[in-house]
Amino acid sequence: MRRLRRADRSNGVRAAPADSVSGGEEPGTDDPTPATLAEATTADGEAMLADLVEAGVVDATGGDARLAADFDEHRRTAVERLRALPPDDLAAATLAVAPTATSAEAVTEGERTFVVLSDGSSEPAGEVWLRRPVAVAETAAALALAETADLDADRRAVAAHGLSVYLDDCPVCGTDLEARKAGGCCGPPRTDAEGHPLRALVCVDCRTQFVAFE
């Protein structure tokens, strides 16, 4: 499969990893409701990219946007530390960078491990279920942003998801990510507001979708 250039992926980013769950959907289903570290459902990819370029996180010189070397070094260091953590410790680390959550726990359903963030409301809609690879990727990005960029916690959380568009391999198992249709194995593919199919960066070994884009 042809790998997308990072510049191609940066256009039309949707802040919704297709393999997370929110709003009371059953964990482990193949077509869950999208959720992110910031519990955002949409994001302006172009505006986000401009913020990250201004903050020195993304280098947009030349024809191909890419992560700035300093930020990427911090992100990779954080990934190495987070993926070695037991699930409960990963949940605690994710909670620390999740601005809308008041508690977190690790939940295993079959072969899948989730970090479950809660806003304390006891309502199903107040929970966000993040697959372990997504939690590692977005928590690492948020930690690296805190060290390298002057962004508040809310913007870091949203940007941490958007930066998944620059992933080349799975932060947990190391498998090369592939661009595939966004959505589960059953039913129609996910689409944007105009009905155009979305694609996603996918780890086929972990059965995890990280970020959807046009």
Task: Characterize the structure shown.
Residues 1-8, 10-18 and 20-34 have low confidence and may be disordered. The chain has one domain. The longest helix has 17 residues, at 132-148. The protein is globular. It is built from six helices and ten strands. Strand 3 and strand 4 form a beta hairpin. 31% of the residues lie in helices and 20% in strands. Residues 30-42 have a biased composition (Low complexity). It comes from Halosimplex rubrum.
For the record, the count of structural domains works out to: 1
The largest sheet, given as strand count, sense and whether it forms a barrel, is: 4 strands, antiparallel
Distance between the ends: 17 Å
Determine the number of helices (DSSP H or I, runs of at least 4 residues).
Answer: 6
Low-confidence stretches: 1-8, 10-18, 20-34
Overall shape: it is globular
Protein name: DUF8054 domain-containing protein
InterPro entries: DUF8054_M
Organism: Halosimplex rubrum
Pfam families: DUF8054_M
Give descriptors for this structure.
DUF8054 domain-containing protein; disordered N terminus; four-stranded antiparallel beta sheet; DUF8054_M; 214 residues; globular; alpha+beta
